[in-house]
Design goal:
Blueprint: E1 8-11, E2 17-20, E3 24-27, H1 33-41, E4 46-50, H2 61-68, E5 76-81, H3 86-95, E6 100-103, H4 109-113, E7 119-125, H5 131-136, E8 143-148, E9 174-176, H6 185-192, E10 196-199, E11 204-206, E12 209-210, H7 212-224
Parallel strand pairs: 3-4, 3-10, 4-5, 5-6, 6-7, 7-8, 8-9, 9-10
Antiparallel strand pairs: 1-2, 11-12
Helix pairs in contact: 1-2
């Protein structure tokens, strides 16, 4: 089976394999309740809320509460953090119902695992990134999100990295991010067979404002891939 033909295989507790035909979908950088409602109605698996103040998609605790209040119970809510302190993260968790944490900074494995919740660890894909070493440093991560390495921002850049760098047989689920949009996501899936795809700027009309037509087109492109 060639890499382009294989489906992602996840290992269950009894060591059997389940082949997932369609990648999960996460739409990150949600800033408005109406965008969260649309994501839920489209059957998106997860939405992302950014708690990194320097991001144009950052939300306050009050905004996050309004968004979470309208999300379908079948849609997971992921909280994105960069280099916030343990106290700052816990403050958010005390006020906002998050299902999963996503870390984009230089947090240690101990800090990521300290909150007793599932977490994703982002890996910034540069020319010399050692994916195996990055994954090995975070053994408790539920999945790894591969995003482009950029000096301008931690995610949401709209830039694509070399998909050939995605491991063909990852030890943990891979979430493919970085420059995905309705026009290229199907090809990205065919080339990398990820567990999930993550989009932010690729479905926006302006920074932080999602576009309904683009969101719909993205979901259809993933389903059609």
């Amino acid at each position: 089976m060639s890499r382009s033909d294989k489906k992602y295989a996840t290992i269950t507790p009894n060591n059997s394999r389940i082949y997932l035909m369609t990648p999960k979908i996460k739409i990150c950088g949600i800033t408005r309740p109406e965008d969260a409602i649309l994501a839920s109605n489209l059957g998106v698996d997860a939405i992302g809320l950014v708690f990194y103040g320097e991001s144009p998609r950052a939300v306050t605790i009050e905004q996050a509460q309004d968004i979470v209040a309208v999300v379908s119970p079948f849609t997971s809510v992921v909280g994105l953090f960069v280099d916030e302190t343990q106290y700052e993260i816990q403050t958010v968790l005390d006020e906002v119902s998050l299902d999963v944490l996503q870390f984009h900074g230089d947090q240690s494995q101990a800090l990521c695992a300290d909150f007793g919740r599932r977490y994703f660890k982002a890996i910034r894909m540069g020319a010399n990134t050692n994916i195996d070493a990055e994954m090995g440093a975070y053994p408790d991560a539920s999945a790894f999100l591969l995003d482009v390495h950029s000096d301008k921002a931690r995610g949401g850049t709209g830039e694509v990295f070399d998909w050939e760098k995605v491991p063909a047989q990852p030890k943990k689920p891979i979430i493919l991010a970085g420059g995905l949009n309705p026009d290229n996501v199907a090809e990205a899936i065919r080339q990398t067979s990820p567990y999930a795809v993550d989009v932010s700027s690729g479905v926006e009309s302006s920074r932080g404002i999602k576009d309904a037509d683009k969101m719909t087109a993205f979901v259809r492109a993933v389903q059609g891939a």
